[in-house]
Specification:
This protein has 206 residues and is mainly alpha-helical. Helices cover 78% and strands 0% of the residues.
Length: 206
């Protein structure tokens, strides 16, 4: 790690950790959605919306701190990219839950549970990794594993699409379900973007 003669603004670390912890909350709500009946899904969606708003607040706090800090712990562009990618994850998860409710989906197709399990694991890893930005230690296994999970998510997504187009569902239902599984795939991609940004930061700081 490079030796620095100037002090650095350290509150970013706490804010990134808080943002990642909020994503874990979102992933748990996704898991809860799987076992919920239609009547319970609206309440879950409301809690997810509140979590998404909390994520927005965390992101805005990071941007405000970035704009008001003379010295930052690492490159400003990387701070912006990391905060934005974390925010994207929450946005995608909230959108998926909202669409399940709005579309009145009675039963999610087989394989969505696997998608959500991948997202939940990626959320846990991301929350564990954020505090390590302080020392840039124990991060390599994190971004390797998240990239592996994203590859797994791609495979699950392709199988889900094949299932949706096998003739079991009518055309309107296919459109609804495809949009939901596509958004969950976007969430997996966003986790990979976070991991790639962390890798970029670690390489620059080494």
């Amino acid at each position: 790690m490079r030796f620095r003669l100037t002090p650095r603004e350290t509150s970013f670390y706490d804010m990134f950790a808080a943002s990642a912890d909020n994503i874990v909350t979102g992933s748990k709500l996704l898991m809860e959605l799987l076992g919920a009946d239609a009547s319970a899904r609206t309440e879950i969606a409301e809690r997810m919306r509140a979590a998404e708003h909390a994520g927005d607040d965390a992101t805005h706090a990071i941007f405000h701190q970035l704009n008001s800090s003379f010295i930052t712990p690492f490159d400003r562009e990387d701070i912006y990219n990391l905060a934005s990618s974390l925010d994207d994850i929450m946005d995608f998860m909230e959108e998926a839950v909202d669409l399940v409710v709005l579309y009145k989906v009675e039963e999610l197709p087989k394989g969505v549970d696997q998608q959500i399990e991948v997202l939940a694991r990626a959320a846990e890893l991301t929350a564990e990794a954020m505090p390590n930005l302080r020392t840039m230690s124990n991060l390599t296994e994190y971004w390797i594993e998240v990239n592996r999970l994203e590859n797994q998510a791609d495979q699950i997504h392709r199988k889900l699409l094949a299932h949706l187009f096998n003739g079991k569902y009518d055309a309107i239902e296919v459109l609804k379900l495809k949009q939901i599984v596509d958004i969950l795939e976007e969430a997996a991609d966003a986790f990979e973007h976070v991991a790639n940004t962390v890798e970029t930061i670690a390489v620059k700081e080494s």
